[in-house]
Design a protein that fits this description.
The protein is mainly β and 500 residues long. It contains six helices and 32 strands. Pfam families: TAXi_C (PF14541), TAXi_N (PF14543).
Length: 500
């Protein structure tokens, strides 16, 4: 997911969720526990959501090798709700807490540093912004230009060398915003599951970016956080660094709750779920590209050339949990909408609303709209329920207006699967196995994780509400929502949607 800075309007709902990272004994890894929070905001329409996604997609880091795609946006602004996922990390000694956005489309963890030009000092997210100061941390050290970790940074950004032999970086995004700074090494703190006990305040050295300059949308206070937590595949991502130190497996998962309050679970470690199906990652790509091969509506495969989805040049299929909607290439979108309309035409009244294909119905959508199957390489299929591709916009009399939430990308061959289709699924990024998997899941429930003890025995835990008493326990661990502060009770797409 490319760095996402989501336009913030209205009030917010914060949902703290215990997050576990599970690994094994000595050299086999430990488990990390983070806090995943979600903020939702009112006032967004379907066109605004498309615009937010367009800005986000424009922020796929500009890499000439793989091309940069800019997405045209048309339409008007309809009032919807939109969410933002971020977590808290502690850095330095003594530790200082920072709010960072979770981003699967970039690799580097970076935070605003002191001093900083253009960095916001306040946030409309109702959070206190902080600045990292390496001189105030007893464990901080600069990364020099001849350090091999500086070379790793060059995989993820434009890098340079200062007169002080500091390893610098610049991230430039497609919408014109950017950040620059230098790399430092310091301690990151986390809770870990080792064997069958929870250990608080574990730490490990990681390299991260110290931002001294920000521009464009990154400077705006209404959507400001302290930085970005990159979950990409390159060597300087935190997940890669922790994995190389034996602290966690090279795998992470998320489960984004779509109904009844939102929130979710983020786990760095090994998920144990027998129903997960996997598809291979396309190798040598900067993002999480997969091979989508066909689309089926109500069991019938659509007549779409598979080359439409293949990764080549500016084509491909990307899984991106930072994209709000989902997007089909033009050659796939038109047959998809036609098939949906033909399937339900006897039960609903098709209509166009501000350029969007919509349907007026008095019945439950689960009774009349067909299932959709996205079919991937390796035999994996992602089954979409009607609520995974439709959005309710308003009501007319006793009938509801439902519109197709999957959007068309005109003139481009990219397909992007965002939160609209990823919600209510456990999604596993198995980087060691170079594959992505998923299964339908109740994201308000716990998830099973595994860890290896010092004796080499693999143990399984029910990850949810983690208790920490400093002693080993033989009962199951759980990772479920534990703290809720409510500012707004609506969640994007999945609560009550306002009128057009």
């Amino acid at each position: 997911m490319p760095p996402a800075r989501i336009l913030v309007v209205g009030a917010a709902l914060f949902l703290s969720v215990a997050v576990g990272v599970v690994v094994g004994g000595e050299g086999e890894g430990k488990g990390l526990v983070l806090s995943l929070e979600r903020v939702s905001h009112e006032g967004m329409g379907l066109s605004q959501l498309r615009h937010r996604d367009r800005v986000r997609h424009g922020r796929f880091l500009q890499q000439q090798t793989f091309g940069v795609v800019d997405f045209p946006v048309q339409g008007t602004y309809d009032p919807y709700l939109v969410g933002l996922y971020f977590t808290r990390v502690k850095l330095g000694t003594p530790p200082k807490e920072f709010y960072v956005q979770i981003d699967t489309g970039s690799d580097v963890l970076w935070v605003s540093c002191n001093p900083c030009t253009g960095c916001p000092t306040s946030s409309g997210l109702q959070i206190e912004l902080e600045f990292f100061d390496p001189s105030s941390s007893s464990t901080a050290s600069m990364i020099s230009c001849n350090d091999q970790r500086c070379a790793l940074g060059a995989q993820s950004s434009d890098s340079g060398c200062s007169g002080q032999n500091q390893c610098g970086y610049t991230f430039q995004y497609g919408d014109g915003s950017g950040t620059s700074g230098y790399y430092v090494s310091d301690s990151i703190y986390f809770d870990s599951i080792v064997g069958n006990s929870l250990t608080s305040n574990s730490s490990a050295p990681v390299v991260f970016g110290c931002s001294t300059s920000q521009s464009g949308d990154l400077t705006k206070p209404d959507r400001a956080v302290d930085g970005i937590f990159g979950f990409g595949q390159q060597g300087l991502s935190v997940i890669s660094q922790l994995s190389s130190q034996g602290i966690t497996p090279n795998s992470f998962s998320h489960c984004l709750k779509g109904e009844n309050g939102g929130g979710g679970i983020l786990v760095l470690g090994q998920i144990v779920e027998p129903n997960i199906v996997y598809t291979p990652l396309v190798p040598s790509q900067p993002h999480y590209n997969v091979n989508l091969q066909s689309i089926s509506v109500n069991g019938q495969t659509l007549n779409i050339d598979s080359s439409v989805f293949a990764t080549s040049g500016n084509r491909g299929t990307i899984i991106d949990s930072g994209t709000t909607l989902a997007y089909f290439a033009e050659e796939a979108y038109d047959p998809f909408v036609t098939a949906i309309t033909q399937t339900v035409s006897q039960s609903v009244r098709p209509l166009l609303s501000k350029g969007n294909q919509c349907y007026l119905t008095t019945s439950s959508i689960s009774e009349i709209f067909p299932p959709v199957s996205l079919n991937f390489a390796g035999g994996a299929s992602m089954i979409l329920r009607p609520q995974d591709y439709l959005l309710q916009q308003n009501s007319v009399g006793g009938a509801a207006v439902w519109c197709i939430g999957i959007q068309k990308i005109q003139g481009q061959g990219i397909t992007i699967l965002g939160d609209l289709v990823l919600k209510d699924k456990i999604v596993v990024y198995d980087l060691a196995g170079q594959r992505i998997g998923w299964a339908n899941y109740d994201c308000s429930s716990s998830v099973n994780v595994s860890t290896t003890t010092n004796t080499g025995k693999t143990e399984f835990f029910n990850a949810g509400q983690v208790e920490n008493n400093g002693s080993p326990r033989n009962e199951l661990y759980k990772l479920i929502p534990i703290t809720i502060t409510t500012f707004l009770l609506h969640i994007p797409f999945f609560g009550i949607l306002p009128f057009l």
